[in-house]
Amino acid sequence: MSTATRGEPFAHPALFYRGEEQYTAGTVPFLRDGLAAGEAVAVAVPGPRLELIRAGLGSSAAEVRFLDMTEVGRNPGRIIPGVLRAFADTHSGRRVRIIGEPIWPGRTAVEYPACVQHEALINAAFGDREATILCPYDADRLEPEVLADAWATHPVVIDGDRELPSGAYDPYRVIARYNEPLACPPDAANLPFDAAGLPKARYFAVQEAERLGLAGARLQDLTLAVSELTTNSVLHGGGSGTLRLWAEGGRIVCEVQDHGRLDDPLAGRRPASRDQPGGRGLLLVHYVADLVRLHTAPDGTTIRFYLGR
Predict the structure, then answer these.
(1) What is the mean pLDDT, run by run of 10 residues, along the chain of 309 residues?
(2) Residues 290, 108: Cα–Cα separation, whole Å
């Protein structure tokens, strides 16, 4: 891990591993080096991998913050503000060292674009921070296309005993490539709305979600997300929009489409400051939803979120 962290305030290497032995060989010494240097250290990986790292660290594990990425990072859009920045900001003024594994075998095709966009956006979110974020990739079980995207979203790739600069590194190209139009089923319930119609839009969303089987706290999450997104459409998206809901694969899907253009790729992924009067709408949606997908173009923006029933 020598060249990955030398001379730069921020380092973002990918680790290609094959099997448990390579996984611990690539992660445990990385963490021990951080502890020896007096850095704040955290690990956010899928549960079984947490236990491998914890066992490898032995008594040093007590000095490390452990998080199960299948829980805290189920929605990839929540990882930067809720995991990475949350840990780094808690240790302001001190270099941090984090292992984050947001892409694992079992991530679905619906989730993957949000995952790879997250990996690309880490570089913008931490470009001026004193931090090293190592991202493991299961090179045996992930598709070749996923590994190719890892080369494009990480300036350095560690593969076995080789540490290689990436000639394919181009995170903004990746962000643009996965800014995909989002197809909507023809039978989705839909409602156009404007400023006067915001209460009706919220009522419509609740009624449809209840009909589709959403209840309790999940229904409250949907109400909050719909309120934030429809209000944003009125204030920043041309004054009106269209709300749609449907059921898909055991989840309720809701989207808001308007005529605004979202130019900031980190919108909704920055932690809100205490003195910030607004601008928290999309951030709140990321926190309550299981997944958020977004498509923006010159003629409008669609924000889609998923909630398990």
Answers:
(1) 59 97 97 97 96 97 98 97 96 96 96 97 92 98 98 96 95 96 96 98 98 97 97 96 96 97 93 67 96 96 96
(2) 13
- Whether 57 and 65 have beta carbons less than 8 Å apart is answered as no
Q: What DSSP string describes the chain?
A: -TTTSSS-SEE-EEEEE-HHHHHHHHHHHHHHHHHHTT-EEEEEE-HHHHHHHHHHHGGGGGGSEEEEHHHHTSSGGGHIIIIIHHHHHHTTTS-EEEEE----BTB-TTTHHHHHHHHHHHHHHSTTSSEEEEEEEETTTS-HHHHHHHHHH-SEEEETTEEEE-TT--HHHHHHHT-------TT-EEEEEEGGGHHHHHHHHHHHHHHTT--HHHHHHHHHHHHHHHHHHHHHSSSEEEEEEEEETTEEEEEEEES-----TTTT-SPPPTT--S--HHHHHHHH-SEEEEEEETTEEEEEEEEE-
Backbone angles phi, psi at 60, to 5 degrees: -70, -15
pLDDT at res. 278:
53
> Which residue in 305, 306, 268 sits closest to 79, CA to CA?
268
- Residue 199: phi and psi, rounded to 5, are -60, -40
For residue 20, CA distances in Å to 27, 60, 147 come to 11, 20, 18
Q: What predicted TM-score, i.e. pTM, was given to this entire model?
A: 0.94
Contacts of 249 (CB under 8 A, 6+ apart): none
Token pair of 18, please? 């094959």
- Partner residues linked to 112 by β-bridges: none
User: Which residues, at least 6 apart from 72, have a Cβ–Cβ distance to it below 8 Å?
Assistant: 44, 78, 79, 82, 83
The pair of three-digit structure tokens given for residue 152, joined into one six-digit string = 């494009």
Sign of CA dihedral 298, 289, 246, 111: positive
- Strand 162-165 and strand 156-159: the pairing is antiparallel
What CA–CA distance (Å, rounded) separates 156 from 285?
32
